[in-house]
């Protein structure tokens, strides 16, 4: 919704944010996304149990990313009011216990989060940027799969081809957006000036585990009605007995979401589960509980200023923990076993199809 005022063009954005609850849910020096942008962030990370046990993880930063592996992750749906023009997107990440941003390698100077801008080779601290940053991730990442999912990489690390093609599933007009918002532009801070650029109101906070279950159940249900790959995994079954660290389950998940051709070098046609069904699955946790939504989590106290943001959990007092997603202890053996199972599944389906013809 666009709202015109005498002073600036203002837009109300419905955005989503995943982060540790103890870091607060108002996106101060943090990133948010529209529904499809949040979907991309979540779906790309399903490979992490394999990726983080590999001897050469391509995106190792996510293995220590608090917004992916922390034990008290929540997802917050907000309405963010933005005024004035958008600026450069800042990659805002939780700092580690050494007071370093694990992605940009820039010092955090005692802050919980640091936002970096510029190219990945020479980033600079842009936490003082007042304007809300914006980035269309279809434009930013659409070529990543061609760079990462090569035949040379696929031979050793086939899972590299599974996640990045999600960006071509979630893209579309006016969607697949990421936003960055800083303490410098926060209108609800004490003493905020007329040049502030954003404020946010919480719609609902849900536990990430509950949200994951809703999404996984939707994908498994779609697969059960079409290909049945999950049911063929020898060490994981759909539903309460699912093992999201099992390579066979991970492969079945991406094959259901993207179609098997999209998981190979060359970036085959993206098919699979209609994106509208994925939209509904990602939105369902925010429905009322009577409509299958997740229980609402009360919001933590909101800081009053940027200085208070830095006092809450920053520096040496920052919590360090990892959500146990079951990193594989022996990746190569497990991957070989998983691909034998996947090959057997493909052969059985091919034989069944030939018999029907």
Task: Provide a count of the helices.
Answer: 13
Strand order, biggest sheet? Answer: 1-2-4-11
Beta-strand percent range: 15-25%
Name the poorly predicted regions.
Answer: 1-7, 313-332, 353-357
Globular, elongated, flat, extended or rod-shaped: what is the shape?
globular
Query: Which structural category do the helix and sheet elements fall into?
Result: alpha+beta
What helical percentage do the residues reach?
Answer: 25-40%
Q: Tell me the number of strands.
A: 11
Largest sheet: 4 strands, antiparallel
Distance between the termini: 53 Å
Q: What number of domains?
A: 1
**What does the average pLDDT come to?**
83
Sketch the topology as an H/E string, one letter per element. Answer: EEEHHHEEEEEEHHHHHEEHHHHH
Rg from alpha-carbon coordinates: 21 Å
List the helices and strands and how they pair.
Layout: E1 2-4, E2 9-20, E3 30-33, H1 35-44, H2 48-51, H3 66-69, E4 73-83, E5 87-88, E6 91-94, E7 113-117, E8 124-125, E9 133-136, H4 137-141, H5 144-148, H6 151-156, H7 160-163, H8 167-170, E10 177-181, E11 198-207, H9 208-224, H10 247-258, H11 275-283, H12 306-311, H13 331-356
Parallel strand pairs: 5-9
Antiparallel strand pairs: 1-2, 2-4, 3-10, 4-11, 6-7, 7-8, 9-10
Helix pairs in contact: 9-10, 9-11
Key features of this structure:
globular, 357 residues, alpha+beta, single chain, 4-stranded antiparallel beta sheet, disordered N terminus
